[in-house]
Amino acid sequence: MKPAEAYIFNQPHLYQSIMLHLHQVIQQNVSDTELLFKWGIPYVYYKKKPFCYLAPNHKKGFVDLGFAKGFQLQRNQSELVDEKRNTVKSLRYTSLETIDHEVLLDVLAEAIDLY
């Protein structure tokens, strides 16, 4: 098993299920991706460049789906979180039920266009 996959499978069930679901959605909607273990978290590379990452926050109870070029995204600003970060913006999920797939797919589509 690759390090990124092992990391996901070693998470508590809540985070694991969210991360697995998000990764599946990314794989189904973004071609030419690779899941790598970078900077201590699973990071999805698109066309061999950093695209987005999956980071569980155990203290605050969410999974961060962060986009490397997040500050270049224009749509869905009310859903994207920046928290004083310079380049990354993210979508945050506390459960599978909180995932708005319409927003997720739109953010993925817009992020692809930045590459």
Short synopsis of the structure:
By secondary structure, this protein is an alpha+beta fold.
Describe this structure in words.
It comes from Flavobacterium polysaccharolyticum. This is DUF1801 domain-containing protein. With 115 residues, the protein is α+β, with helices and mostly antiparallel strands. The protein has helices at 3-9, 13-29, 101-112, and strands at residues 33-38, 41-46, 49-57, 62-67, 89-93. The model has no long low-confidence stretch (mean pLDDT 96).
Task: Identify the notable features of this structure and list them briefly.
about 120 residues, alpha+beta, 5-stranded antiparallel beta sheet, 3 helices, 5 strands, about 30% helix
In N-to-C order, the SSE pattern is: HHEEEEEH
How much helical structure, as a percent, in the residues? 25-40%
What value does the average pLDDT take? 96
The profile of the biggest β sheet is:
5 strands, antiparallel
Number of helices: 3
Domain YdhG-like: 16-112
Organism: Flavobacterium polysaccharolyticum
Protein name: DUF1801 domain-containing protein
InterPro entries: YdhG-like
How is the secondary structure organized here?
Blueprint: H1 3-9, H2 13-29, E1 33-38, E2 41-46, E3 49-57, E4 62-67, E5 89-93, H3 101-112
Antiparallel strand pairs: 1-2, 2-3, 3-4, 4-5
